[in-house]
Write a structure and sequence with these properties.
This protein is of the alpha/beta class and 241 residues long. The protein is built from seven helices and eleven strands. The protein has a single domain, classed as Rossmann fold. The model has no long low-confidence stretch (mean pLDDT 94). Adenosine-5'-triphosphate binds next to strand 1, strand 2 and helix 1.
């Protein structure tokens, strides 16, 4: 499998009232195409900061990030904005859908932003929503859908432009357990089937049962990488912390 995302000793340091905080401290990890990774760790360990660095939203103070082989932070701002739109899909904690657009229009918006809203693009948006079990909800506004349905629309929106990398920051935080399982399982299935590199931040260890790799952070550093199926399973059952 090709490496779709790689960080090389990436660091993000904040200055807080004269005090330096290394929110992300020399992190070197990679994710292959078709691989779904859980990013876990205690509050304040740097998960969201790392995701923002990977998404091209926050500039690292050190190190390099490669997305699909290209150095994200060595591009001009203009190039990075375009690159980000093409190569990265992002799913937020709450679905962040545009409230006055229907489910289908929310998904199509990502294609529009990439100049790809043609007939085949429209078909693909519909097919994705269909695969996510939303065939009968395409015309609904976000306010006319359940939390789980909204989050599935957000997944479709993050995948529709066929990004190399899909980043999700606690996508199940606002869902009950049953809905959360469904959303993560669907996300995993699509990431595998479409050969995307996925990273999901989660506080809920049970959600790791669908991932291929677990990266655990503490104090901005990678504390542990778990790749064996057996160990991941033990983790997801909560028998190891
Ligand atoms: N803009 C900022 N300025 C200064 N410090 C920051 C800033 N953003 C985050 N931090 C600090 O960086 C560290 C990592 O924060 P981050 O949000 O990445 O953690 P997290 O692992 O996502 O936590 P949580 O699980 O609570 O979401 C924390 O100590 C936080 O206080
Ligand atoms: Mg966070």
């Amino acid at each position: 499998m090709a490496i779709a995302l790689e960080t090389q000793v990436v660091t993000k340091q904040y200055e807080n009232a004269g005090q330096a905080i290394r929110a992300v401290d020399e992190v070197s990890v990679n994710v292959k195409a078709g691989e779904f990774v859980a990013l876990i760790g205690p509050s304040g360990s740097g998960k969201t900061t790392l995701l923002a660095l990977l998404a091209g939203l926050l500039r690292p103070t050190g190190g390099n990030i490669f997305i699909d082989g290209s150095p994200l932070w060595q591009m001009s701002d203009k190039d990075r904005t375009q690159f980000r739109g093409e190569k990265i899909g992002f799913i937020f904690q709450s679905s962040n859908l545009v409230p006055y657009l229907s489910a289908l229009e929310n998904v199509e918006l990502m294609l529009k932003l990439n100049g790809r809203l043609d007939k085949s693009g429209r078909e693909w948006a519909k097919e994705l929503l269909d695969q996510l079990g939303l065939k009968d909800r395409m015309g609904n506004l976000p306010s006319q859908m359940s939390g789980g349905q909204q989050q599935r629309v957000a997944i479709a929106r993050a995948l529709v432009h066929e990004p190399a990398v899909v980043l999700a920051d606690e996508p199940t935080a606002s869902l009950d357990t049953e809905r959360a399982y469904q959303v993560v399982q669907t996300l995993a299935t699509l990431i595998h089937a479409q050969n995307r590199a996925g990273i999901m931040v989660t506080h809920d260890l049970r959600m790791t049962r669908w991932v291929d790799k677990v990266i655990r952070m503490t104090d901005g550093k990678v504390a542990q990488i778990i790749e064996s199926k057996g160990e991941i399973e033990a983790y997801s059952r909560g028998s190891e912390h």
